[in-house]
Each structure stands twice: as structure tokens, then as C-alpha cells.
Amino acid sequence: xxxxxxxxxxxxxxxxxxxxxxxxxxxxxxxxxxxxxxxxxxxxxxxxxxxxxxxxxxxxxxxxxxxxxxxxxxxxxxxxxxxxxxxxxxxxxxxxxxxxxxxxxxxxxxxxxxxxxxxxxxxxxxxxxxxxxxxxxxxxxxxxxxxxxxxxxxxxxxxxxxxxxxxxxxxxxxxxxxxxxxxxxxxxxxxxxxxxxxxxxxxxxxxxxxxxxxxxxxxxxxxxxx
Length: 226
Known about the structure:
Order of helices and strands: EEEHEHEHHEEEHEHEE
Shape: globular
Largest sheet: 8 strands, mixed
Strand order of the largest sheet: 6-7-5-4-8-9-11-10
Number of strands: 11
């Protein structure tokens, strides 16, 4: 994937996202990148899981790490909470640090969160990095189907490009590959909801919920592994 076919665009909430001309899609919602991240992945995913289970130690897997926006919002969320997070992002085509630093997402999170992220971004592409006492992260530089892990995850942020642009990320084989890493009781969230997605997740042993979508989408999917 070429990094030259990328341009920043301003989304509906004033935050920026990257438009990838090669894929034909933005990394985040054009209706609001930050508000989508907070609604889909933090509120409907992580916060829901924490409130439901009372967990104080949470492992998160993100499919489609991209700019790191969801990681940043996660780090900001736990800042005033007694929650330990082990975060793994899968990214087949990591962005250069200069591009990440130009997102403007420093304006959406605590200064210490942003500083820790940009200072450790390149290191996290090589190994698991502890950026403070309650948060460690690793960016697996690999394609989804090549990703392997011996550990299970409590929450999955599924943030791949839309199925119309990357159908191979949403087919039964790809979803089954992700599902094997989800712990029983674990939660899978994504911005999309389709009949095929619901059927696939049900067949993989998940219960399905239609949750309110982020601005621009009426509904989204939350699935819990039985």
C-alpha cells in the first residue's frame, strides 16, 4: 500500500483523518473521527465490558491499528481509572511516525498520553512497550491472516476498512481467525452491521446486539463470545 496516496481531511467533529486513495476510503468516519472512536470502541466496547464485568485487567486486540486513534482514546479513558490494559494492534501497513504525529490527535487526549504514544510508536512496532504502569502496547506489523497470539483478548476493536473496499477482511475465514483470539465473555465491536456479519458472528459462537451507531450510522454491531 502506497503512503504517497494519502491526504488529511477534516471530519464532521473538526478532527482529521487520512484518506487513502488506493483503498478509496478514509481511516475513520468522515462524520467525525474522534467521536466515532469514542462511541464505537470506547463507550460501546471497552467501557461496556468494564461496566458489565468489573474487570480491572483488560486485554484489547485492534484489527486495523492505522493512526492509533483508538489506542489514544483507550489510553485517555483509563487515565483516571484503576484499569490495567494490554493492547495489541494489527497493522499490515504501518504509517510513518511523521504522518502519525501530523494527525492533530494530540488535541484530543491528555498531553502525557500523546507524548508517550509518539515517543514509543516506533518501538511498539518491534516489541511490547510499557508506556506507563497501567498500559502496554504492541503493534503487530503483519497481515490479519498471518497474526498469531498465544493469549486471548477481552475486547476486540474491529476497525478494518469497509467491506466494499476490503472484502477479504470481513469474510467468514477472516472473522473466524479473529474469533479464535477472543476469550469467553469477550466483546467484539465494529462500526458496521450487515446480515452477513451477524450470521458469521453467530456461527462462531457469539451473541449479537444491535447497538446505536456513531453519527452517520444508525446501528453498529456488538458481539459477545459465549
